[in-house]
């Protein structure tokens, strides 16, 4: 019965989003979404999201400097930098390498870089998280990934690259929205929204159990907890937050 209701509500959602499905069928939506719609939404929503998770991010990144190398300088790689929503939480003097799959977020990113002069921006690489071949093995003290693993092609591939570029003893920091408890109404609505949400928001998966991928990766230690972010009336309140050590 529940599956039938979910399928019915999915169809209702698809009917409401019919113009977008039509644009997708014509091959118009995907380039428009990637170049205009999604960067615009991300830039507008970043400030609101950061207000809701500010305390969590401050707590998450408070020990970043402890992973600095012998020189005392922290080299950090951020996967899926987007508009630079995390810059304000990084310690002064941090040597940044930023990556993203495209240059579509440059306007918001340039603004964030100008507002965070306490960081040293060294490189910006256009590359997917599954293929960071421009980054040397064991070259990073820390890797950060927030709200990215929901839309990558392969979570396992990204984590494999994270482990490759991290030096021994380095840390991978994450904050990701994930599947809700299967017995909850939140999970029910995640299943309803899933196909349309994925189309509208550039391949974002609502029901990924990312914590399982982290637990299966070859980290020596993982500190992970589940939290609820007050993003009311959205299907992305369930998050995981923490860091893992190589």
Can you give me a brief rundown of this structure?
The protein has 246 residues and is α/β, with parallel strands linked by helices. One of its GO terms (molecular function) is S-adenosylmethionine-dependent methyltransferase activity. InterPro entries: Methyltransf_11, SAM-dependent_MTases_sf, Thiol_S-MT.
Secondary-structure element string: HHHEEHEEHEHHEE
Structural class by secondary-structure content: alpha/beta
The strand line-up of the biggest sheet is 3-2-1-4-5-7-6
Terminal CA distance: 45 Å
Give an overview of the whole structure.
This protein is α/β, with parallel strands linked by helices and about 250 residues long. It is about 40% helix and about 20% strand. α1 packs parallel to α6 (about 185-200). The longest helix has about 35 residues, at about 30-60. The radius of gyration is 18 Å and the shape is globular.
């Amino acid at each position: 019965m529940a599956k039938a209701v979910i399928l019915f509500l999915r169809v209702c959602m698809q009917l409401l989003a019919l113009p977008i499905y039509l644009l997708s069928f014509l091959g118009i939506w995907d380039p428009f979404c990637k170049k205009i719609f999604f960067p615009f939404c991300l830039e507008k929503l970043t400030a609101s999201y950061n207000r809701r998770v500010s305390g969590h991010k401050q707590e998450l990144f408070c020990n970043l400097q402890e992973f600095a190398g012998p020189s005392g300088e922290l080299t950090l790689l951020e996967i899926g930098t987007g508009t630079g929503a995390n810059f304000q939480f990084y310690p002064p003097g941090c040597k940044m390498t930023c990556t993203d799959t495209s240059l579509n977020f440059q306007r918001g990113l340039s603004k964030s870089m100008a507002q965070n002069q306490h960081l040293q921006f060294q490189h910006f690489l256009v590359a997917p998280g599954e293929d960071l071949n421009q980054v040397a093995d064991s070259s990073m003290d820390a890797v950060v990934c927030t709200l990215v693993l929901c839309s990558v092609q392969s979570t396992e591939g990204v984590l494999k690259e994270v482990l490759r570029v991290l030096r021994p003893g380095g840390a991978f920091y994450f904050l990701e929205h994930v599947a809700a408890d299967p017995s909850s109404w939140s999970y029910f609505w995640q299943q309803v929204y899933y196909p349309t949400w994925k189309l509208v928001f550039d391949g974002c998966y609502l029901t990924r159990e990312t914590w399982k991928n982290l637990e299966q990766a070859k980290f020596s230690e993982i500190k992970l907890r589940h939290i609820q972010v007050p993003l009311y009336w959205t299907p992305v309140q369930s998050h995981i937050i923490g860091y893992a050590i190589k």
